[in-house]
Design brief:
Rossmann fold; 9-stranded mixed beta sheet; BirA Bifunctional Protein, domain 2; alpha/beta
Length: about 375
């Protein structure tokens, strides 16, 4: 039976750990320099205010507003992988706890894959059962325009057999009508958005599915999982536990551009929600991490995603930045952590299923096999 309520302390502890092992920095660390400024509800950009934001989109917009206020603008060379929550240490928990994972600045499938894997790990840990991932693609603007025309034809042809409320909604918003048809379980013949993808969107979706398969991430294609066009684009997905949706995610490039008009970039995020209770105790600062794991190349990146769970289960004092593809940027982030050891994996090591462990003080290096790596690292801690 799925848990109804989760202690806020547990939620925050799990989110922190998953953020660390999958390469997400707490938003609070990035925005710390902006503290002391007004934190009241400020207006979104006018273009965003005019949008019909659903609850998840409003949560993401609020997150982007905080990033904007802090002046943290990612680039393709320096993407930001961030996690955020409304749970605050020392304060009573919000009844509805929210945990978000975002990848800003990365256009590649690895960003989607890392967000998805982090969500699955969080759901698995909190509910103590295996979550299910459902995924679809709504495509880009070209795809959505094409799909909207197909939906309009669909509702017109079936106006006599569909519920009247559904056909009436279709006159104003075909995507809203499609959601209603799915909810009323009368969408068996509803056109699938993936049948109308542009070449660019099809390539993006295929890349993601390949990444999920190569990292052994179970998923199911969900042709009736759709999103509205004013906020979301391309990939959309949900995580379910016990038949209930616990998280929703999608790319939201157009929404991000409203907040960062001078530095357009790709963005993907997901929002996890759960009922919480209790109060989070303020704890002392965490000890310095022992290992920073850096990797370069697709083979190494895919292996690092799979290794994240092994490190986490073994409680190895390690952090990595899976979604950051630049080795220089990864080394910069590792330098800031000041870890005594660097764990390094390039294409050669990935193919040989090994990793290089470097002592940062002595520069001594040894080669370790990936099999049993987590336990071997404990001997260096």
């Amino acid at each position: 039976m799925t848990r109804d309520t989760i202690p806020a302390e547990e939620l925050l502890h799990k989110a922190r750990a998953i953020g660390q092992y999958y390469g997400f920095t707490p938003l609070s660390h990035v925005t710390s320099s902006a503290r002391g400024s007004a934190r009241s509800k400020e207006r979104y950009p006018d273009a965003v205010t005019a949008l019909a934001l659903d609850s998840v989109a409003d949560t993401v917009a609020s997150f982007l507003r905080q990033c904007q206020k802090a002046g943290c603008t990612p680039t393709t060379r320096q993407p930001l992988f961030l996690w955020h929550t409304n749970i605050a240490p020392g304060r009573p928990a919000q009844k509805r706890a929210v945990i978000q994972f975002h990848a800003l600045g990365s256009d590649r499938a690895i960003a989607d894959a890392v967000v998805i894997r982090a969500l699955l790990a969080l759901a698995r840990d909190l509910f103590h059962e295996e979550p299910t991932l459902h995924i679809n693609s709504m495509g880009d603007k070209e795809t959505r325009a094409r799909y909207a025309r197909e939906l309009a034809i669909f509702f017109k042809k079936r106006s006599e057999t569909l519920p009247e409320e559904c056909t009436e909604r279709a006159k104003h918003d075909v995507f809203l009508a499609a959601e209603f048809a799915i909810l009323r379980e009368c969408a068996e013949d509803l056109p699938a958005p993936t049948e109308h993808l542009s070449d660019a969107s099809r390539k993006r979706f295929e890349d993601l599915l390949e990444y999920l398969e190569m990292t052994e991430t179970p998923y199911g294609l969900a042709r009736t999982l759709i999103s509205r066009g004013s906020v979301w684009n391309d990939t959309c997905f949900e995580v379910r536990v016990g038949g209930n949706r616990v998280a929703w995610g999608s790319r939201y490039n157009d929404l991000a551009r409203h907040f960062f008009p001078n530095a357009p970039f790709s963005a993907i995020g997901a929002v996890f929600q759960a009922t919480s209770e209790g109060k989070v105790v303020v704890k002392a600062k965490s000890p310095r991490l022992r290992f920073s794991f850096v990797h370069i190349g697709d083979e190494a990146k895919r292996l690092s995603i799979r290794l994240a769970e092994e490190f986490r289960r073994a409680h190895v004092s390690l952090a990595q930045d899976i979604g950051v593809e630049s080795l220089t940027e990864q080394l910069h982030l590792a330098e800031r952590r000041n870890s005594p050891y660097l764990l390094i994996m390039g294409r050669k090591e990935a193919l040989e299923h090994t990793a290089i462990l470097r002592n940062r003080q002595t520069q001594e290096e040894i080669i370790l096999p990936l099999n049993g790596l987590a336990e071997r690292l404990k001997s260096f801690a």
